[in-house]
Design goal:
- The strands form two sheets. An eight-stranded mixed sheet has the order 3-2-1-4-8-6-9-5.
- It contains 15 helices and ten strands.
- It has a domain of 221 residues: Alpha-Beta Complex (Spore Coat Polysaccharide Biosynthesis Protein SpsA, Chain A).
- It is an alpha/beta fold and 334 residues long.
Amino acid sequence: MPRAIPMPPLLTIGMPVHNAMPYLRETVQSLLGQTMTDFRLLAIVDGSSDESLDYLRSLKDQRVRVIEQEHRGITWTLNRILNLCETPWLVRQDADDISAPGRLAAICEAIGEHPDAGMFYSQAAYYPAGKSVGLYRCTRGTPEQIRSIARAGYVPAICHPSAVLHVGKTLALGGYRAGLHCEDADLWWRMALAHDICFIPQVLLYFRQNTGSLTSHNLKRQALHGLYVQYLLLSALEHRHAAALSAVESELAGMLDDSSLRAKEELRLFNIHLGQGLPLRALGRLAASVRLSPGYFLRRLRDEWFPPALIANGLPPELYRKRKDSLWPQHLAI
């Protein structure tokens, strides 16, 4: 009988790595211990100065490919991973998060059910499990509902390292846009308008919050860039010429709610301290969050325990339209 030809892998796990120790070992172990074993792991070490590269090179596993580069930043690295990916689907993984043992198996099952989708993502829980509390705030809906969020001028809320991208469709959209701290959210709305995004209603990823992460260091900058991402979306929907961030930055900064932003930061620190086993310090952060913005705190509780029909990110689009003379001074049609 003729010998069966093995099928090539369906999935590549793409992992940018920059000074990821001491968490990297646990992350990699969660990947190499998956119940589904037929995959590739592409790790790009982006100019690390710790032992990340040495550890990855010590792995004796043919599924693992390690590339070293000078420090180029997350967006450049993510686009390089997309361009080097040799499988149809790219599974995102940050170097400090944990994949559930059945994550890849569940992803393959979802792809089998929706093979024409452009993207999948799952529910994510905060890590360490049992110490940190809550689920990552994300949109939960059908592809049509997720598309409706973008068409209404809002940005789907998706945990970036839970995402699974169709490589060809993502590259055709231009990949990740450079110069944004919210490069993921910018991709979500473009993907939602062009292809189906499918939600997997299972916790397949454990998201680690730590004070050394990019999110912790750039919270206000990320919030500003988040407003700019929504501005880009509205510009596309309304066929307006989008200005560069530098031209509209001061106008967008005036739309930020500093008290809500500070309350969000305190709530993040509350969960970080819980994960560190510091309950008294955590309670202090929780009290600070409530004091800074009771409204934000109650909305976050609502989204956790009694989520609305569709969770999304962004301000009411009408707030942008009221500033149209400053945000779109040229009033140029595309």
